[in-house]
């Protein structure tokens, strides 16, 4: 059995995530194989900037006809290649009712209480959303219209909204199956019909799910079945039928994990991760589920992954060495960077250059960097 150190695994991941900036066109790079998660803090744009060999424009993702924003993995908004959308939709079809219920995450109890198989609940909601979204509509308007089309047990009373509407996670999981996307760079969230909806598909495809799992292991391996399930947003047991068959077992500092066989050579001899990057919250690199591998120190891990409002992460030579936040005021973006350990002057200068790239990507003409 192959055994590698955690440091070696981290170097492999830095390379696989494109953080050496080897790709002139990040949209065509493996970065988009699993999609790029987004939030209103421009997280997808900043993740793109951290990997692009050239400056990234503020509208790079919004204006790019090759990508589309949808609710996908775990019901979270991701930019995906438009050409790969059909394959993506197929991969998001639950393998069975247990898988469908597991994907409801924090709302499993409510969906289970309907007494209806979770797959049936999912596709009933998808048909309702498909019916009501015929033009761009706010999320609230879609929710209200879909709720009227659905059995009452699919909905709940929402105190903040002071109304009854479809369960949130159910809506997020059902929307893409209903042929509906998100409008990029819109607040509040706006939904619109996909340009080429096609016929709604409901038949499970274990091979399609397996390709997502394999993609996760390529980018974030060596990793476990539980790690991959966490990314997909389902239970570990639900992935048994979709677990790839071309994997090799690898021990990372004694931890049993797996990697696609064709990635072993890259793991054995990864390039030196001598890069400094400011990774935004929700960056694909920090979205790996084995947080103890990324940041073994528990106190530091709590700083990187906050329950609410996680900061960005400072990557230095293959290690997450600090966190950073921003505050915008007019045309100026202020960065506050907190390093866990003292850094070399060259690393601080490189981090400040990364801040300059990030500010430009977000459309700020000026910036300041404060080291806390």
TrEMBL record:
InterPro entries: AlkZ-like. It comes from the Bacteria. This is Crosslink repair DNA glycosylase YcaQ family protein. It comes from Amycolatopsis carbonis.
């Amino acid at each position: 059995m192959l055994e590698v150190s955690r440091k070696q695994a981290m170097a492999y991941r830095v390379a696989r995530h494109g953080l050496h900036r080897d790709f002139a066109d990040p949209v065509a790079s493996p970065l988009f194989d699993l999609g790029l998660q987004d939030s209103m803090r421009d997280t997808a744009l900043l993740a793109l900037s951290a990997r692009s060999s050239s400056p990234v424009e503020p509208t790079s993702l919004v204006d790019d006809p090759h990508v589309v924003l949808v609710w996908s993995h775990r019901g979270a908004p991701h930019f995906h290649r438009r050409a790969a959308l059909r394959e993506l939709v197929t991969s998001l079809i639950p393998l069975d009712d247990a898988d469908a219920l597991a994907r409801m995450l924090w709302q499993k109890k409510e969906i289970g209480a309907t007494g209806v198989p979770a797959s049936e609940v999912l596709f009933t909601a998808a048909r309702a959303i498909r019916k009501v979204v015929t033009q761009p509509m706010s999320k609230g308007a879609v929710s209200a219209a879909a709720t009227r089309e659905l059995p009452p047990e699919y909905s709940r009373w929402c105190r903040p909204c002071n109304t009854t509407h479809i369960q949130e996670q159910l809506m997020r999981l059902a929307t893409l199956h209903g042929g509906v996307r998100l409008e990029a760079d819109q607040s509040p969230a706006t939904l619109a019909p996909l340009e080429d909806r096609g016929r709604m598909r409901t038949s499970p495809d274990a091979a399609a799910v397996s390709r997502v799992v394999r993609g996760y292991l390529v980018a974030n391996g060596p990793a476990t079945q539980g790690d991959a399930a966490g990314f997909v947003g389902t239970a570990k047991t639900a992935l048994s039928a979709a677990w790839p068959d071309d994997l090799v077992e690898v021990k990372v500092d004694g931890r049993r994990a797996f990697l696609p066989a064709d990635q072993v050579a890259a793991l054995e001899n990864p390039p030196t991760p001598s890069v400094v990057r400011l990774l935004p919250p929700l960056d694909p690199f920090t979205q790996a589920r084995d947080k103890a591998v990324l940041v073994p120190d528990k106190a530091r891990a709590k700083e990187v992954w906050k329950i609410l409002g996680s900061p960005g992460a400072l990557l230095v030579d293959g290690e997450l060495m600090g966190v950073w936040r921003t505050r915008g005021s007019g045309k100026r973006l202020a960065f506050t960077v907190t390093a866990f350990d003292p850094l070399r002057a060259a690393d601080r200068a490189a981090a400040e250059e990364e801040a300059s790239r990030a500010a430009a990507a977000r459309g700020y003409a000026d910036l300041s960097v404060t080291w806390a």
